[in-house]
Amino acid sequence: MYHTWMRFFTPGPAHHRLGLVCLGVGLQYGALPTVGPRTLDHHVAVVVNAGAGWYLSPDGRRTTVTAPALLWLTPGVPHHYAPDAEGGWDEGFVDFTGPATATYTELGYIEPDRPVVPLSDATGARAVIGRMARAARRDNPLLEVETGAAVHELLVALRRARADLAPDGEAVLKALARDACLPLSVADHAAKHGMTPAELRTAVRRGAGCSPKDYLLGIRLGRAKELLATTELPVAAVARRVGYDDPAYFSRLFTRRVGMAPVRFRAQQFRTVPGGWSNQVPDPADPPVIGRNR
Hints:
By secondary structure, the protein is α+β, with helices and mostly antiparallel strands. It has two domains: about 1-165, Sandwich (Jelly Rolls); about 170-270, Orthogonal Bundle (Arc Repressor Mutant, subunit A). The protein is built from eleven helices and nine strands. Helix 5 (about 170-180) packs across helix 7 and helix 8 (about 210-230) crosses helix 11. The longest helix has 19 residues, at about 145-160. Pfam families: AraC_binding (PF02311), HTH_18 (PF12833). Keywords: Activator, DNA-binding, Transcription, Transcription regulation. It comes from Streptomyces pseudovenezuelae.
């Protein structure tokens, strides 16, 4: 015996231009029927929250699925899977498509070559699917946009929950973020962690979907923007603060990646205020309040 709830949608052309659209969402549990063999023209994320089963690859390899786990069903790839006949499993699924799937695949959030992905915890992903199910009422005028936005959130939640990213890979990324503004090369960062540059590239690519150089650059430029927007430091001093001894090189790099020179960015964003600037992440329970006495 099994129980199923599902809802399917047909987003219009304008919704597809948002990058991702949700084509359907469902929640099922119990001794569910075998799926496939079949081939789809869109993506499906099947999040298995409890139970176990199997997945059969096109080449005949049978993989055991043990919760928490993710099944990636990707366009054009035949798939065949089922929960155990006796115990079944508890799953939530989301069908989706859109031009942004190519970018998410490039960044490693969608893995066509890895249909069964162990998760460390399915709680976050299932919470997103639950919100999508609640948004799926037929009288919801925001249905397509709300569920499409949730697909982006789901991909982030699934990436964060991947069992192979914790805890070592996450520790490397945190250490790189902490040291990003030091005047160190990628090889220097690798040596600091007892890794070869190739090993560091693999770890960062797996964890952040980009190269170490791009990961460090993103953090450096973010910090530079904060300094330009909230302080009166000269551009040369900002460059040094974020790890660049050559202010001309920093300005060229900033202009190429941001789309405007540092001085222009400052002219647009400068907003020094009494009380100063903090680099502490705000506590949602204690947000900044105008006029509060500290």
